[in-house]
Specification:
By secondary structure, the chain is an all-alpha fold. It has a domain at 10-219 and 349-408. Helices cover 68% and strands 0% of the residues. It has 17 helices and no strands. Helix 13 packs across helix 14. The radius of gyration is 21 Å and the shape is globular.
């Protein structure tokens, strides 16, 4: 990349990068509605600087996928626009544009290229989120911990950060690298305390994935044995801490509902996933709305502003739909608001980390980080809105910037 005169000093860029990354990875789980604005401010500065020096990071393959996704969302607007509400998906996903700017800041400061720099931030973020969750439940007695956030959002963010910490385990041979296993452990604490089933499913998927990647990457028999021991210990901790928790009550209640249901339909129970009548009827109604909207306009969708009114029209007896802002599923949301174009945009955003895997064979942290983002956001997005919700979107952009940095860095 060329670096022209008039750029900010290296010290100033280093400070901006540090503040931005500490906020985005260290405090996104505990202060998301402050951290996301700090990251966006830092990302804008980094993006402006990258444009000024004509950095080739702006045309990284992952960045190009993000540009294409936002372009597809923009192309649907002439066909679905009814009010300013229809602009929200495009605007809400726009923070992903900051990823190349963040990457430019990280590459400018060699300290962020060291193996422990970003993983330690992620570890701090996961541990602090888990500890604050424990503090909240002990001091308030709440059944669903959120640490100032929606419980399912808190659990999802903590899960992603916790597993991103594992990139420090596979990127070096230091004896103390095993400390990064605390990342997923404290993420599990947050998931249990939040009583959220979607993040629990995501945690399990990421745990299985991380186990395979770590064992294959390190290629040591003792690693496999240690991994199995950790899984056993984690399962025991989960059973002890979650046995009487709300999350277990919700899981067993859902299983009982599935076993008892089967044939109901009409206004009482949505047609899709009718087997989850009981406590999940509203969620099934939202999935059905996504399908109905897609069927009515399969190419461009019906627009964000028309999505929830359709849900309320289809299921007028579901009072909870009157207060919800989206369909609580990325697949349902993007299918409804943008049709095939929306689903294509969602796929481009979700799989953009994979475009950074050019050097993954030499950099296992890059492979693990990319899989954590793709699988984590993919599974979490089945039962919750991720892209378009500001903290989650900013966190994805920060993680993507980390991957772009690893791809472009000469060493890990």
């Amino acid at each position: 990349m060329s670096q022209t005169q008039g750029r900010p000093s290296q010290d100033l860029l280093a400070i901006i990068a540090a503040v931005t990354l500490v906020a985005g990875l260290g405090f996104m789980g505990t202060s998301p509605f402050i951290a996301d604005y700090v990251v966006m401010a830092g990302g804008l500065i980094g993006l402006a600087w990258a444009v000024r020096i004509r950095s080739d990071i702006l045309v990284h393959r992952s960045a190009l996928m993000v540009y294409a996704a936002l372009a597809l969302l923009a192309l649907t607007l002439p066909f679905v626009y009814r009010s300013e509400m229809d602009l929200l998906p495009l605007l809400a996903c726009a923070p992903l544009l900051l990823a190349p700017g963040l990457a430019a800041l990280m590459l400018r400061n060699g300290a962020w290229l060291k193996p422990h720099a970003v993983p330690l931030l992620c570890l701090f973020g996961a541990v602090s989120a888990g500890l604050l969750g424990l503090w909240e439940v002990m001091n308030t007695g709440t059944e669903r911990v959120g640490v100032g956030n929606n419980p399912i959002h808190y659990a999802g963010i903590t899960t992603i950060i916790g597993f991103l910490a594992l990139t420090g385990l596979v990127s070096n041979r230091d004896p103390w690298r095993w400390i990064y296993l605390l990342g997923p452990a404290f993420a599990l604490v947050g998931v249990v305390l939040s009583a959220s089933r979607g993040p629990l499913l995501a945690w399990a998927a990421l745990a299985a994935l991380a186990f395979v990647v770590v064992v294959v990457t390190l290629r040591q028999k003792r690693v496999a044995l240690a991994g199995l021991a950790i899984v056993a210990i984690g399962a025991a901790i989960f059973m002890v801490t979650a046995g009487d928790s709300l999350v277990m009550t919700r899981i067993t209640g859902g299983l009982q509902a599935i076993g008892a249901a089967g044939t109901a339909g009409g206004d009482a129970v949505p047609t899709l996933l009718g087997a989850v009548s009981g406590q999940d009827a509203t969620r099934a109604a939202m999935y059905d709305t996504g399908i109905a909207a897609f069927q009515s306009s399969p190419l461009f969708g019906i627009g964000f502003g028309q999505m929830m009114p359709l849900a309320r029209d289809l299921y007028p007896k579901f009072g909870e739909l009157q207060t919800l802002e989206n369909l609580h599923s990325d697949l349902a949301d993007f299918a409804a608001l943008g049709g095939a174009m929306g689903l294509a945009a969602f796929a481009l955003m979700l799989f953009s980390p994979l475009a950074a895997l050019r050097t993954a064979r030499q950099k296992p942290a890059l492979l693990l980080g990319a899989l954590v983002l793709v699988v984590g956001y993919g599974v979490l997005g089945l039962t919750n809105a991720m892209f378009g919700v500001l903290p989650q979107t900013v966190l994805f952009g920060t993680g993507l910037a980390y991957l772009i940095t690893l791809d472009r860095a000469p060493t890990v």
